[in-house]
Recover the amino acids of this structure.
C-alpha cells in the first residue's frame, strides 16, 4: 500500500471542525476517503463547512446525534482539544475504532523529512528557531514550520517534497492520536507537570509525550534535555533511535552543551552564549535544542550564529514589547503554567513587576517562591488565581501587591509601581480561559494596554 492510497475508500469521521478538522477533512477527501464532519457548534453559516459540503463532504453540526456512530466508520480523526470522555469518542473506542489526530493523517502521507518538536515549554520557540536556521541559504528544498505552531500539517502534507523539511510542533493532545508517527528527528525540550485536567495524571501526560519517539529506529535521532534526569530515563526507556542530549549545566563530549561561555556540538565550538539575543536560561536550552538539529542537518556555524543574533523571540513567549521611560515591557502570555513563569523570571537580572493570574486548576504556587524572592519587587494579579498569587507573594516577602480586574487594568497599575530599569512582565503562570478565549488574546490585550499607556502618558506631557 502506498502512502497516497492508505485512506482510499475508508469511511472517516472527522470530529470537530476548527482549523485542523477543516484541513484534515479536505486532505482525506483528496486521498479518496468518504468523509463525515461532526461539530457540536451550529455551522449553517460557516464558510468552511459550506466549502466542505460543496466538495461532497457530509457535515453534521449543532450536536452529536445519538445515531452518529451507527454508520460503519473505519476510523475517527479527532480535534486535539476534544477530550477522550466525549460520548462520540467513547462510542468509537467501544467499537474498537482507531481514534487519531490530524497530524497523524498528515505525517502518514508526507514525503518530507519530519522534525518533531515537543515538550512542556519552549515548543514554539524551538520550532521557530529550527525553521530559521534551516531556512538560511538553503541549497535545495524548503523548510516549513507547521503543526501546533498554527498551520495544520494536513494543509501542506501533499505539497511537501522529499528534499523539504517539515518542522512540526506537537502537543501532548496531538501526540495521543499518533500510532504511526515517525519523525526523522524528535526533539524534547523539557518535561514538567501540565494538562492534568485533560490527561488525568502525570503518567498519562508523559505517556502521550513519549509517542514522539516510539516508532523511531536506529536511523533516526532523539534530541533531549539531559538536565532533567526523569526525562532522560523516559527517553532511554522509549526510544530506539540514536540519542543526542543537550545540556546547559554540564559539558557533553557527545552532545550540545555549554562551557566557559561557548556552545559546543560534539567537541566543536559552534558559537558564544553571548550571541543569543533572547534572554533566559530556558531560551538557552531552546537554542541548544535547535542547534542540535541544525548541526545534524549540516547548517554552518556562521548561519547558526547569525540566527542566534537576529532571532528576537516569538509573540507571547517572553516577547520584547519595547522600552518606555526606562521601563522594559515583556509579553509572556504563553506562560500558562508555573514552570514557564519560573523560567521567565530567572532570565532577568533587573527588578521585575510581575503581572500574573488566570484559570484556577487547583495548583499551589509555592514552587514560585524562590524566583519571586529573587526577582520580583511587585505583583499585580488578576483572575481566578488572584488570591492564591497574593498569598504566595506575601510568603515571598513582597510588599507591593495589587489585585486588579484584568490585564488592561494591570498595565497602568504596574507602571505606577515601577522605577527606571524595572522589567514589567506579563507571565501569568496560569491558563487564560477564566477571562480570555486563549493566551494569544490575553497577550494582545497586554500589548494594546502598553501602547495605550504610552500614548496617554505622552498626551499628558
Amino acid at each position: 500500500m502506498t502512502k497516497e492510497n492508505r485512506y482510499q475508500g475508508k469511511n472517516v469521521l472527522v470530529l470537530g471542525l476548527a482549523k485542523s478538522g477543516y484541513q484534515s477533512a479536505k486532505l482525506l477527501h483528496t486521498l479518496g476517503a468518504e468523509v463525515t464532519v461532526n461539530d457540536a457548534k451550529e455551522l449553517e453559516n460557516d464558510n468552511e463547512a459550506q466549502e466542505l459540503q460543496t466538495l461532497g463532504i457530509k457535515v453534521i453540526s449543532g450536536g452529536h446525534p445519538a445515531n452518529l456512530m451507527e454508520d460503519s466508520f473505519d476510523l475517527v480523526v479527532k480535534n486535539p482539544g476534544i477530550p477522550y470522555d466525549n460520548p462520540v469518542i467513547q462510542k468509537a473506542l467501544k467499537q474498537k475504532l482507531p481514534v487519531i489526530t490530524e497530524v497523524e493523517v498528515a505525517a502518514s502521507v508526507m514525503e518530507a523529512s519530519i522534525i518533531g518538536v515537543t515538550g512542556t515549554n519552549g515548543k514554539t520557540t524551538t520550532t521557530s528557531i529550527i525553521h530559521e536556521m534551516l531556512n538560511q541559504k538553503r541549497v535545495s528544498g524548503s523548510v516549513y514550520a507547521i503543526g501546533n505552531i498554527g498551520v495544520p500539517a494536513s494543509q501542506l502534507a501533499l505539497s511537501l517534497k522529499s528534499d523539504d523539511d517539515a518542522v512540526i510542533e506537537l502537543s501532548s493532545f496531538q501526540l495521543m492520536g499518533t500510532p504511526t508517527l515517525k519523525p526523522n528527528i524528535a526533539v524534547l525540550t523539557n518535561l514538567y507537570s501540565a494538562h492534568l485536567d485533560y490527561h488525568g495524571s502525570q503518567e498519562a501526560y508523559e505517556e502521550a509525550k513519549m509517542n514522539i519517539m516510539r516508532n523511531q529506529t536506529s536511523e533516526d535521532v532523539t534530541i533531549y534535555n539531559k538536565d532533567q534526569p526523569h526525562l532522560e530515563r523516559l527517553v532511554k526507556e522509549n526510544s530506539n533511535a540514536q540519542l543526542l542530549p543537550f545540556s546547559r549545566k554540564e559539558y557533553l563530549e557527545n552532545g550540545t552543551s555549554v562551557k566557559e561561555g561557548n556552545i559546543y556540538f560534539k567537541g566543536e565550538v559552534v558559537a558564544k552564549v553571548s550571541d543569543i539575543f533572547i534572554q533566559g536560561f530556558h531560551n538557552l536550552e531552546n537554542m541548544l535544542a535547535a542547534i542540535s538539529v541544525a548541526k545534524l542537518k549540516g547548517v554552518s556555524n556562521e548561519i547558526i550564529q547569525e540566527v542566534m543574533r537576529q532571532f528576537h523571540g516569538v509573540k507571547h513567549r517572553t516577547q520584547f514589547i519595547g522600552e518606555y521611560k526606562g521601563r522594559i515591557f515583556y509579553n509572556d502570555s504563553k506562560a500558562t503554567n508555573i514552570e514557564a513563569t519560573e523560567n521567565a523570571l530567572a532570565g532577568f537580572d533587573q527588578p521585575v513587576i510581575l503581572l500574573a493570574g488566570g484559570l484556577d486548576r487547583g495548583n499551589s504556587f509555592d514552587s514560585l517562591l524562590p524566583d519571586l524572592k529573587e526577582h520580583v519587587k511587585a505583583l499585580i494579579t488578576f483572575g481566578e488565581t488572584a488570591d492564591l498569587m497574593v498569598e504566595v507573594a506575601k510568603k515571598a516577602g513582597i510588599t507591593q501587591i495589587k489585585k486588579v480586574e484584568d490585564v488592561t487594568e494591570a498595565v497602568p497599575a504596574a507602571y505606577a509601581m515601577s522605577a527606571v530599569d524595572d522589567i514589567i512582565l506579563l507571565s501569568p503562570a496560569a491558563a487564560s480561559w477564566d477571562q480570555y478565549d486563549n493566551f494569544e488574546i490575553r497577550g494582545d490585550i497586554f500589548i494594546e494596554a502598553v501602547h495605550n499607556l504610552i500614548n496617554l502618558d505622552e498626551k499628558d506631557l
User: Anything to note?
Assistant: The longest helix spans residues 439-460.
